[in-house]
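User: Can you predict the 3D structure for this chain?
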Amino acid sequence: MTDFRADWLAEQFEGSRPHLRAVAYRVLGSASGADDAVQEAWLRLSRTDTDAVDNLTSWLTTVVARVALDMLRSRNSRREDPLAAQPEAASGIDPADEAVLADSVGQAVLVVLETLAPHERLVFVLHDMFDMPFDEIAAIVGRTPAATRQIASRARRRVRGANPPDPKPLRAIVDAFLKASRDGDFAGLVALLDPDAKLTADPAFVKTGVPPELRGARAVASMFTGRAQGAEPATIDGIPGLVWAPRGRTLAVFAFEFKDQRVAAIRMIGDRAAIGRLAIELLTRRSGPGH
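Assistant: Here is the predicted structure, written as structure tokens:
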């Protein structure tokens, strides 16, 4: 690959990155997983001859979708429905109502999506959230366009009828994490973390000397042992986490992700603009978004 071609591909990829990350995040429900899927798409792009690709963003979206589906399947023990599943009756939902549903999807629905099988989640996200045609989605999930349409209908009904799970168990995990951190209980922190836990820090935190990324329960635990003295429990986009909010002003966010009742990832966010885009509610006292 010539330097000119490589530079052009890198520029095109960076232009598509926000869209690709949005797709991956909604499919996976995990910011760290989304970053991994997008990085894998870049690696595949760098190894592929794309001269015959007409729409690079569409091609990259398909790659990210395939990677995300593989990641979902690897972490999800739920059996896929048989390929020869019986056709279902039409949902009878008005198309305009479907558009309202897609626009209203938020963090709570991302939690509900965890109840779907991997292929159902992917189809729902690609079609209802990103308006990808069924024939393109069908090629990704290995179904016919008609079967893919039925999968979307089934997933849509399940999303409409589902309720987000009780957040109390997750809050208990965060409370235990905060106590272990304050107490300097390294072993306690390790026990609360998934063995493959990941910590990521945004540039605002990196400037303070925090590593941009740590992997593994022991490495992440070492970052929090004896710390978090000023942190407070909060919900971040509806998910339990921690914030540092002196005098009620949120200056730092620790967004948690969970897997099998353990902490799977923590995102450390210190950028004011990024914090302002989050819906934050302190659990010790009420607070508005981003404050």
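Residues 77-105, 285-291 have pLDDT under 50 and may be disordered. The radius of gyration is 20 Å.
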